[in-house]
Description:
The structure holds five protein chains of five kinds.
Chain A: H1 5-23, E1 51-55, H2 69-73, E2 79-85, E3 91-101, H3 110-114, E4 120-122, H4 134-137, E5 138-139, H5 141-144, E6 145-147, H6 148-154, H7 156-184
Parallel strand pairs in A: 1-6
Antiparallel strand pairs in A: 1-4, 2-3, 3-5
Chain B: H1 6-26, H2 30-54, H3 60-91
Chain E: E1 17-22, E2 34-40, E3 43-50, H1 58-63, H2 71-75, H3 82-96, H4 103-132, H5 137-157, E4 166-167, E5 170-171, H6 177-201, H7 205-211, H8 219-224, H9 230-234, H10 241-244, E6 257-259, H11 265-288, H12 302-306, E7 316-324, E8 327-335, E9 341-347, H13 349-354, H14 357-361, H15 366-376, H16 380-384
Antiparallel strand pairs in E: 1-2, 2-3, 4-5, 7-8, 8-9
Amino acid sequence: MIFGSGVLRSMLITLKNFFTSYFKGPEEGGIFTVEYPETRLPEKERFRNFPFLVYDRNPENLRCVACDICAKECPPKCIYIVREFDKEGRPLKRPAVFDIDFTVCMNCGICEEACPFDAIYMDHEFEIAGPERQSRLLYHKDDLLKSNEYFHKIRPTDATAIDQQRREAEEKKKAAAEAAAKAKQPD
Amino acid sequence: MMPVPLQHFLFFAAALFVIGVYGALVRRNIIGILLSIELIVNAVNVNLVAFSRSTSLAPETGQIFALFIIAMAAAAVAVGLAIVLALFRIRKTIFTDQIDLLKG
Amino acid sequence: MGISLIAGVATVTLPNIFHATLSLVAALLGIAGIYLILHAEFLAVIQVLLYVGAVVTLIIFAIMLTEGISNKTIAQRNKLGPAAVGGAVVFLAALWGVIRSTPWPIQGGTSENSYATLASLAGSLLGDYIFPFEVISVILIAVLIGAIVIAKKDSV
Amino acid sequence: MDTRFPSEKAYPFDSESSVGMKTEKIFSMQTLDQIFIIAKKIILGVTGHFLPDWACLLTSILISISAIAVLGPFTMMYLTLLERKVIGRMQNRIGPNRVGKWGLLQPFADGIKMLTKEDIVPLEADKVIHFLAPLFIVMPALLVFAVIPFGRNMTAVDLNVGLLFFIAVSSTTTIAIFMASWSSRNKFSLLGGMRSAAQMISYEIPMVLSVVPVIMMAGSLSTNSIVEAQSRWHGLKWFVFTPWGFLGFIIFFLCAVAECNRSPFDLPEGESEIVAGFHTEYSGMKFALFYMAEFMNSFTLSGLAVTLFLGGWQGPFLPSWIWFFLKTYALIFVMIWFRGTLPRVRVDQLMGLAWKFLLPLTLANLLVTGFWYFTSRPVRIAGSMVLLALAFWILTKLNRDVVPEKRVYHFAE
Amino acid sequence: MEKIFSARDPSALNTETLEINFGPQHPSTHGVFRMNIVCDGETVVSLKPVMGYLHRNHEQIAENMSYAASMPYTDRLDYFNSMSNNFGYSLAVEKLANIEVPERAQYIRVIMAELTRLVNHVSVIGFLLNDLGAFFTPVLYAFREREKILDIFEEVSGARMMCNYFRFGGVKYEIQPHILQRIKEIVKKFPKFLEEFEALLSKNEILCMRCQNVGVLPKELAVSASITGPMLRASGVDYDIRKVDKYSIYGRFKFRIPLGEKGDVYDRYYVRILEMHESLKILDQALKDIPATGELVSKKMAPFLKSPRNFKPPVGEAYGRVEAPKGELGFYVVSDGTPQPWRYHVRAPSFINLTILEDMCLGHKIADVIVILGSVDIVLGEVDH
């Protein structure tokens, strides 16, 4: 083939793309870039960003019982939990302090897997840039707390499945409790 | 653009010529000497063109001579630089006072 | 006119060789200006093209190869400084004396009608000056080959 | 005895005849075509009353200079925007559209950014030359505007050595690039400087030689007369339609692309290899000057290509200067198109292409033009076509190593 | 005028030799990688690569964490294809604790690995063109395809690049049918894009000029320097771990291995394009006969999903290797019965492919060094791990 033909053919392709970018949609070779602040890509359900703590109805009864499993399992060790003690000094099943250092966390989702009490889940919210590193990105308990409804809003299928499991667990526990109560009560 | 008398050009060319000669004598660096030779050649050219303008018999002869001289000067510089390069490779220096011994 | 003189002096005196070359460029541009005043446009453009475009670039190449990157500016003037200045001044005075005294055929300015047009220049170049034109081309080729042979690396 | 500066005499503006012609002209394509010249005459008319004769001459020159001074940077700014938009579209993304309606104010934003950037001069750099280099690069880029015929009689300075002036001035950029790379004392810029000088020189000769056939056929060096030579038959007479003209156009355009260091030949500031070549050490306003010079070069060179081969401002009914700008921007689009698609050529291939391929091709082109000049109509078209094809074929055979070799790939189970 | 450095004897005729640092922040070294190049004029005389700017002590960290905890770290090794890194690590631990992976999980793993191969090869060719000077056009065409595949990864595993999707004995999440359907569409449209991409590049004279007979890697040197991946196959050696080991379920798929003959930059580029065609074949077959249902993680490993730290593999050692797009990616794990590995080592293909960079670059121009580095296709995360 004559010398310049390869170059010419590659030029024609860029020209084709130049014109299709005006007329065709994003699928067949049109413009596939999205202008971020105005239009946004649809959010994917399983997308995982930094974790958050779930509470039912009001922020007091959060699900976390400060069992410290997630702190032990977290690869970069970015969770710090201190258990709460009531006045007499007996430990309570609630965390007094629950910090996650977002600069260390690599949102791998292992804490979500390891948590036996479905207390910690991965969030969808990613615009959390702050002015400086230390204070702004070290999240304390109250920043992390988010309601169960929010959890349903961002991850509908997972949330319903988990709620369903929790309800069954409660019925089983109630049934077991009644059975135990019945067994204790007749003798 | 009032007419410029002939003498002005001649004075200017002579001055340039003398500067070129001074440069050639004084410079230690061969390339410096080549530069001054360029100056001398240009001074000569200016003279030529000035004369061709003032004598009205065949006006373009002066310019043709100037053209030939420019060509020759370019050739001279080319050969000069080639010699300088070769010299630099062997002697590692292009300063005239260090290259005075004629040994091979 | 003035520029070229100053630039000429600078070419000769500046210690750093690169600065000297640049002042040579300024001098050449000044001379091209003079040609324009003398209505020799073709020559001015040729001068710019040939000298500033090619010759000075050649010189810069040479400087690049010989000076190396970190060049130290060593004293550029050798011993016979003052003697040369004296000689030059004497020579200049003699020249000026000659110029001022000789009666040039046309004392007046340059006559207006006789400037050379491009066409006439080309005509005579290829007309009655055809022989030197050919000789020049032969010489240039010889120089071309000669320069390459001298500057070629021995080893390769 | 009024000895005028030769190019003055060729000035149509001040001669009384054209002033008379304007008055009884009804509004027609002609006036739209001469819109700028009429505007200039009006200004001259106004200033003519209270200024002495030589001052009137001065103002006419000043007007054309100011027109160019406005046109130059303005085209440069909008060329940067055009380039980013076109390359963006080629890559299926939208070009800059944040500043201004479609990104129209983007060049101003870039300009302000360039101005506010801090001007770093490397420590042991050669201060004087470091400062001078950008000026020396922009100077030829602006000087060259004077010779390009923008419209019917809208050439700033109609030198009868116009073309030669263009080539002479554009060859001085080599020294400016050297100054820039030598004075910033860093290895990358030195490499860039050496490469660009070698590239400039080796691409200047084919460029000049590819222009010679046009001069031969047009008979003169002045750009205006070249455009006149192509004016008959409404565009069929353009040089590009003759075989040697077409080949000359391609070679000229390739050399023009190489001259202003763009796209396949942008060796001197090859980003991926030697960072930013000779203007590595520059920032702020000085870098803007380099940038401006590069874009103005590409504008003027494509303007010249239009003048030489595509019949300058010849065009059926649109006013002349619109035609000129249309054609020039078309060529600039092709330059940007090159930049969007083609990878960079290596230094020795660059030289090889220039010396071993383009130069012999231009010489062949010269021969064919001679042949064309002296033979009659039917013979010369066929003859020159055959000769040129032959030359092209021989040259591709000679440069065996450049032509890509076939590769066969077998598969293992 | 002091001589900076002269490789050859000073008396021989040599012009000024330049010693240039293609420093860590050079625009085209694919990350923080330095090369001390000594060149005479333009041709390279000697080249010393300097690495370690991105060393994050991955192996030592892994030895202080439980097995599952270091899975997210393997994503960060070769951040272009995290799925195949996970694949390699999970293979090694499954061999160590002889866990067998259920059928459906095997198919999902193969589909994900082949999708990463497509992503990697497409973007590598894009970056190679970038080094050659084509101003970002091929990269953006490649990224248009890469975006679609990364959306699939995000849909499936939760993150575009740091997927952390594989678990010992299977995968973490289920693939819903509509995602499978989307993968089928992508695989159907990919060949059309590929031949447009090939038409843009393969016959391009400038590309051929720049790439042919540049950075030639002879067969013996490739084998002796234990080069693996597309570089080895471009030199004509028929060695692909998917065919040699037939690990996971690669034995069931029918596909071929493209081989070049000269082993220069052009061969490596073209072998990668042909490999993409082969991966598409594998994906077609895998998508066709993937079982509709089936458990995701083997029963033996299910309890440890919830509490990874009390997963204690038996004492012993295992070396799991996988055909990553860059070459043979191996994980050597030694366990002493405790939840933390006693020794954990990663065989990074990019690191080993880099060792012979100098032999390929001698005698070439500086512009070629960058192109050869681009064709070797290194990712600094893996080189310095």
